[in-house]
Amino acid sequence: MTEANLKLWYLKNLNLFKNMQPNAMKVLDEITIMENYQKKQYIYFSAEDVEKVYVIKNGHVEIGYLDESGKEFSIDILGPGEIFGTVLGKGSAGGYARSLNKALICVMNQVDFEAFLQKYPEISFRVLKVLGFKINILENKLQNLVFKDIKTRICELLYSLYQKSGDKEKQIIKVPLTHRDIANLVGCTRETASVNLSELKKEGIIDYEKRRIKILSPRKLQQYISFPA
User: Fold this and answer.
1) Per residue in 132-148, pLDDT tens?
2) Distance (Å, rounded) from C-alpha 40 to C-alpha 42?
3) Which of 7, 12, 47, 107 is the most exposed place for a label (fewest CB within 10 A)?
4) What are 167's strand-pairing partners?
5) What is the DSSP pairing of strand 206-209 with strand 103-109?
6) In what order do the strands lie in the sheet with 83-85?
7) Rounded Cα–Cα distance for residues 86 and 84 (Å)
8) What sign has the CA pseudo-torsion 25, 21, 127, 76?
9) 187, burial (CB in 10 Å: exposed 0-12, middle 13-18, buried 19+)
10) What is the dihedral of CA 155, 161, 164, 169, to 10 degrees?
């Protein structure tokens, strides 16, 4: 398979663009390039506006922001099929996106993507549904930071990642995560995250080695979310 045909095959197999009209797929193919990113490589890291749209084919991407001192704060971890960057309007200053492992990503200029959406409104509807879903997730995360204890927040994070990016046979979360990564995602110190992860390990709910987390009991993890101790 040629590189051009491979790119088209990847595009056709992304959920966001599945069953799209052939003429629309042709236009999308023309405005898209495929980029490979190595582990822990920044996709963008700038105080300037992001002017591109990204859709993940393979791998996982960490999305975050920088405070005034330059400290990084993780907001979300995205997996295959998810879209990020300047999807609509202007991008946010000071943000970053970084691959957590090797990643293959479809990249488009924001202006080209916006013109594409105007030409094919049925795709616009799909994108708006995805963005609406992401807004709901971020709202839930904000509520968690305000109203839920750290252990429950960690359980919710692990359960969410397991459902979205888990190998159910091996019972592992495929996203490589350090205790620092988890702490950033739930809003606590690395030490506090480590203490709570150790408790979950002693309770037989999870196990971990280096950057790999195994979910020993998804049922117990889900119960902890519903009925936190």
Assistant:
1) 767 766 666 666 666 68
2) 6
3) 47
4) 172
5) unpaired
6) 33-37, 103-109, 52-58, 83-85
7) 7
8) negative
9) middle
10) -90
Residues 6+ apart with CB under 8 A from 139: none
Q: At which residue do the structure tokens 């629309």 appear? A: 24
Paired sense of beta strands 42-45 and 33-37, if any:
unpaired
Please report which helix (H) or strand (E) contains residue 218, including its range: helix 218-226
Tokens representing 36 are: 């490979």
Question: The tokens of 149 are what?
Answer: 């204890």
Counted residue by residue, the chain has a size of 229
Q: Is the pLDDT of residue 198 over 90?
A: yes
Span 53-93, pLDDT tens digits: 898 988 999 988 877 777 777 888 888 888 888 876 555 54
Q: Are 56 and 15 in contact (CB under 8 A)?
A: no
Residue 14 pLDDT class (50, 70, 90 cuts): low
Report the greatest alpha carbon distance in the chain.
Answer: 56
